[in-house]
Design a protein that fits this description.
single chain, alpha/beta, Conserved Hypothetical Protein Ylqf, Chain: A, domain 2, 6 strands, globular, GTPase activity, GTP binding, nucleotide-binding, P-loop_NTPase, Putative mitochondrial GTPase
């Protein structure tokens, strides 16, 4: 499959410039205002959220692969490339991969733009042409899960055939990608609205911490002897090291990383950067600031005063304001609905190329980054000597 994260040598500035070119401003709030073209971020930012239960879940998934015929992979529509986890791909395709089918489900479609410029068709065509999946489905909070259920039934019937013990499926993805919600919706759609929820859900990542028990989502077919389809919920699995800090900010902004691990003001600043690239009018006029701004402190001070996030003496609480505005954007609450990744043939091909590289541990990644920095320093020194 594919790996959306750039190499350590790729700078945050170059990625931000790419985003700036991809974003088309909707309006011009102030002719004198110029948004930042890049978003420099310290390479020292936290770039790992690979916890102990992530590792355990991955090992348990590997042990169950011999009984699994179908993978339901959830990815966040707001970051369709960045939420593409190569560690899951390499782990779940290591044993009898040809015998397992895959359905890719892009969740949170309702939080993306109504007019996606053909991005859904581009993603679907790419995955199907490359035979990454048997089906690609886009699912939002208000959309019917029937399309996913029908895809599951079709794959089970046409690709796998009748299974006397039932078809076993795993639902996988990054933390907070909507796996448990998908399982509950499939069960209610397939078994009737009267059934109770099979998996616990929540707004924060890490609600599911171990593999669940198989849950039936498709009734048995007595005419063929097929026992239906069972799905196992799994914990969200992060990658050991995110090589690019901008990708880490994207993951933090949509909620794939536990709030607070990446400084909330930094996440809010990245949101402000994205809003300015598209349309400062998304926040101007809401009483936060007098006009568009590139200053996160000015923006958050205005938000804090507007929402009452004040401390002693009326001091604006920037962290609280940052948390509030990020949550507002995540919920689609009037700050625009847009995709943070650029999706093109080039970026998709790059993602596939990166997926073929083995996932690095934190220590391996840090060592590689040090070696690359030394190489760049040596190259600059040689250039200076030659001059």
């Amino acid at each position: 499959m594919s790996q959306p994260l750039k190499t350590a040598a790729t700078t945050a500035a170059s990625l931000a410039t790419q985003t700036a070119k991809a974003a088309t401003p909707l309006t011009t709030t102030s002719p004198a205002f110029t948004p930042r073209e890049t978003f420099p971020v310290s390479p020292q930012i936290l770039r790992s959220y690979f916890l102990g239960h992530h590792h355990s879940a991955l090992q348990n998934m590997k042990r169950t692969l011999s009984t699994v015929s179908l993978i339901l992979e959830c990815r966040d529509f707001r970051i369709p490339l960045t939420s593409w986890n190569p560690l899951l791909e390499s782990s779940l395709s290591s044993t009898n991969a040809s015998e397992r089918s895959r359905i890719i489900v892009y969740t949170h479609r309702d939080l993306g733009p109504k007019d996606d410029g053909g991005m859904m068709k581009r993603l679907e065509r790419f995955h199907l042409d490359k035979r990454h999946a048997e089906a690609v489905v886009f699912l939002g909070a208000g959309s019917d899960s029937r399309a996913v259920l029908e895809a599951v039934k079709r794959v089970s019937r046409d690709r796998l055939g009748p299974q006397l013990t039932g078809t076993r499926a795993l639902v996988v993805g990054m933390p907070n990608a909507g796996k448990s919600t998908l399982l509950n919706r499939l069960r209610q759609k397939g078994m009737g609205k009267h059934v109770a929820k099979a998996a616990k859900t929540g707004a924060e990542p890490g609600v599911t911490r171990k593999l669940g028990t198989p849950v039936r989502i498709v009734e048995p077919d007595l005419s063929t002897g097929d026992e239906g389809v069972y799905v196992v919920d799994t914990p969200g699995v992060f990658i050991p090291h995110v090589s690019d800090p901008i990708s880490m900010l994207k993951l933090a902004l949509v909620g794939c990383v536990k709030d607070g691990l990446v400084p909330s003001v930094l996440v809010a600043d990245y949101l402000l950067y994205q809003l300015n690239l598209r349309d400062p009018g998304l926040y101007v006029g809401k009483g936060y600031t007098r006009g568009p701004t590139n200053s996160v402190e000015e923006w958050l001070e205005g938000i804090a005063r507007r929402t009452g996030k004040l401390g002693k003496g009326g001091e604006p609480q920037l962290d609280q304001a940052a948390d509030w505005i990020v949550q507002k954007w995540r919920s689609g609450g009037g700050l625009g609905r847009f995709v943070l990744d650029e999706v093109s043939e080039e970026t998709l091909e790059e993602a596939v190329r990166r997926a073929r590289e083995p996932a690095l541990s934190m220590n391996q990644a840090v060592k590689r980054e040090k070696e690359e920095r030394k190489a760049r320093s040596a190259a600059r020194w040689l250039a200076q000597q030659g001059g």
